[in-house]
Design brief:
This protein is mainly alpha-helical. It has one domain. The chain is built from 11 helices and 2 strands.
Length: about 270
């Protein structure tokens, strides 16, 4: 199954390269259900993989001058603080068994995967239905809606810290809809925010008792980065908007399947 996981890592990167986001949302399910990694450890691995992949995307977007560094810092500081607090203080202190009812145990692992499935469903709906609203907003003049951006940054920090997802499905709509940032620049800026959040979140996890399999982690990351270059090449030949909607439906199905598995089939 290890080779299947690495093949899917290429698919994660390809999706990221094709549509500018979303692929990382599949990283945790691949690590948990294909590579049989504990959910808590999988969210830590995901932070490293997402952070490294986002750095690759950031370098490309930076060369194209499609990164707003000021907004990235304004968005990044509160979200980084929340990510670090969640990874370093909150998650390690959550008990392994949250509650029990007869023979059923609602564990921390089940809780994390349930939260992650909700994040997946929310992300999928954003990809399916938010396209026209984002496209309309991206054609308007940029505004300084920093207070709203700050609040959105806190939400992104909580989600990134809890489930290891980059939060691009929240960051890009926030940048485009709330402050009217052009779509290309919003994608580039989101790469910087995601990279900062993920790297700090991963660093916060290193202070816990988790044992990191560096060989698996680096190998998965390399295959994901290869996928980014494949996706970037294909993006010049395939319509990203149609792919985003199709991928959204796929993520929706995955999220529902995880809820069913973790709650109804226990």
């Amino acid at each position: 199954m290890e080779y299947v996981g690495y093949f899917l890592a290429i698919m994660v990167g390809t999706t990221l390269g094709l549509i500018g986001g979303g692929g990382a949302i599949l990283t945790v399910p691949i690590l948990v259900y294909i590579l049989a990694i504990n959910p808590m450890l999988a969210t830590t691995y995901s932070l490293f993989i997402v952070g490294l992949s986002s750095l690759v995307g950031l370098i490309k977007k930076s060369k194209e001058k499609n990164v707003d560094y000021k907004i990235a810092v304004i968005f990044g500081i509160p979200s980084i603080a929340v990510v670090y607090l969640v990874r370093h203080l909150l998650l390690p202190n959550i008990p392994d068994i949250l509650f029990s009812e007869k023979s059923y145990h609602f564990t921390k692992s089940v809780a994390l995967m349930t939260i992650f499935s909700v994040v997946m469903i929310t992300a999928s709906l954003s990809m399916i239905f938010a396209g026209s609203k984002i496209k309309k907003a991206s054609n308007q003049e940029t505004v300084n809606n920093y207070f709203t951006i700050f609040n959105q940054a806190l939400l992104v920090g909580i989600i990134t810290g809890l489930v290891g997802a980059g939060g691009g499905f929240l960051i890009i709509p926030a940048l485009v809809v709330l402050i009217k940032m052009p779509m290309k620049k919003a994608v580039g800026t989101s790469f910087m925010i995601i990279a900062m959040n993920s790297i700090i979140g991963f660093a916060g996890s290193l202070n816990t008792s988790l044992i990191i399999d560096w060989q698996l982690l680096i190998t998965f990351s390399i295959f994901s980065i290869i996928g980014i270059y494949i996706g970037t090449f294909l993006s010049k030949k395939i319509s990203g908007e149609k792919l985003k909607s199709m991928f959204g439906w796929f993520v929706l199905l995955m999220g529902i399947c995880i809820i069913i598995k973790e709650i109804l089939l226990q």
